Amino acid sequence: MAATSALFVLDIKGRCLISRDYRGNVSTAEVERFFSKHLEKEVDMESHGPICYDNGVSYVFIQHSNVYILAASRQNSNAATLLVFLHRVVDVLKHYFEKLEEESLKDNFVVVYELLDEIMDFGYPQYTEAKILSEFIKTDVYRMEASQKPPMAVTNAVSWRSEGIMYRTNEVFLDVVEKVNLLVNSNGQILRSEVNGALKMQTRLSGMPECKLGLNDRVLMESQNQSSRVKAIDLEDIKFHQCVRLARFENDRTISFIPPDGMFDLMTYRLSTQVKPLVWVEARIERHSRSRVEMLVKARSQFKERSTATSVTIELPLPPDATSPTVKTSVGFAKYAPEKDALLWTIKSFPGNKEFLLKAEFKLPSVLSEDAVDRKPPICVKFEIPYYTVSGMQIRYLKIIEKSGYQALPWVRYITIAGDYELRLS
């Protein structure tokens, strides 16, 4: 558990701006003495580490703008949980003040104290959902009225959703977004290959709906003895939003949840299996004289013809002193970006199993040696492929059940995008 003795907000010099004592066993003087001792070492607090121990007290802190948010505890608390909690505190304060800095805290210290009383009780984190807190703590209200009641989300188990939400049309939008990270050497050998995926949801649902989501998860499909044409996949490093019932998932791999209202990430996952490059780029450089250099580039899409990549940008490195480039492309357009020492080749639509060419000619100062052409940073590629996932992830079903019995419209989209996607020339 993350049992915290007190929470402090310090300025850049370690002086206490705001504090909230939950257990009475760590004083403000102790915290200021500890922080000033570390600042005297003239080290960057972030590089020094966010977790310290001094005189029987554990300190966990983060820096945002010109303030430090610090939790102090005399117990053996879970440091990772405290770090997550501190980031949630920052998110809540930013929700109220837009910019979290020393001046905004001084101008709104009454609201800050009200928030600190709600987000933690006797040193244990409580309510850290900004949307819920904003329903009964207003920025222009310094103290709750006696007749004002907290929303049901504070008093029931579903702290991320309020009761009484109503929509004329009930809809759910689910985007399966996969980001491909790839590094290929000059011999065409894949050095690094990784897919990071996320299920991003936007819900516009009335009441307190119960949602059930089915994936083509290998463990689930094998446990149900399902023989299907749908390809089963192995998911790694799965992380869920707090609304998902983890015990249910661990028991039978069913994703069951009451969703928050609005946008949120339901799940993230990772696949470390080797991925075939979706867009392959080859570049050949030829020197025709001491000052004239020619570059021939082939870009080839290596996915099925029924898919099409959009917003493709291929960044081709050039020598830093290249001048007067002339470019011809079989499709799209290319422009010289001297600030990046590169040609940017943009292709609006790149169908699967196609190959396009670019030919560029540029000049180099004659005083340079041939080593100027040998400078070869990697080729960087950006793209999006709608209606396509690298992993083969599929949403098998999305059921929405609410006691009023309304019919909800689920919309599912798939998209693959390039993350750190680099092809080395040398």
Automatic annotation (TrEMBL):
<dbReference type="InterPro" id="IPR050431">
    <property type="entry name" value="Adaptor_comp_med_subunit"/>
</dbReference>
<dbReference type="GO" id="GO:0030665">
    <property type="term" value="C:clathrin-coated vesicle membrane"/>
</dbReference>
<dbReference type="InterPro" id="IPR028565">
    <property type="entry name" value="MHD"/>
</dbReference>
<dbReference type="InterPro" id="IPR022775">
    <property type="entry name" value="AP_mu_sigma_su"/>
</dbReference>
<keyword id="KW-0968">Cytoplasmic vesicle</keyword>
<dbReference type="InterPro" id="IPR036168">
    <property type="entry name" value="AP2_Mu_C_sf"/>
</dbReference>
<dbReference type="Pfam" id="PF00928">
    <property type="entry name" value="Adap_comp_sub"/>
</dbReference>
<dbReference type="InterPro" id="IPR001392">
    <property type="entry name" value="Clathrin_mu"/>
</dbReference>
<dbReference type="GO" id="GO:0006886">
    <property type="term" value="P:intracellular protein transport"/>
</dbReference>
<keyword id="KW-0813">Transport</keyword>
<dbReference type="Pfam" id="PF01217">
    <property type="entry name" value="Clat_adaptor_s"/>
</dbReference>
<comment type="similarity">
    <text>Belongs to the adaptor complexes medium subunit family.</text>
</comment>
<keyword id="KW-0472">Membrane</keyword>
<comment type="subunit">
    <text>Adaptor protein complex 1 (AP-1) is a heterotetramer composed of two large adaptins (gamma-type subunit and beta-type subunit), a medium adaptin (mu-type subunit) and a small adaptin (sigma-type subunit).</text>
</comment>
<dbReference type="GO" id="GO:0016192">
    <property type="term" value="P:vesicle-mediated transport"/>
</dbReference>
<keyword id="KW-0653">Protein transport</keyword>
<dbReference type="InterPro" id="IPR011012">
    <property type="entry name" value="Longin-like_dom_sf"/>
</dbReference>
<dbReference type="InterPro" id="IPR018240">
    <property type="entry name" value="Clathrin_mu_CS"/>
</dbReference>
<feature type="domain" description="MHD">
    <location>
        <begin position="169"/>
        <end position="424"/>
    </location>
</feature>
<protein>
    <recommendedName>
        <fullName>MHD domain-containing protein</fullName>
    </recommendedName>
</protein>
<dbReference type="GO" id="GO:0030131">
    <property type="term" value="C:clathrin adaptor complex"/>
</dbReference>
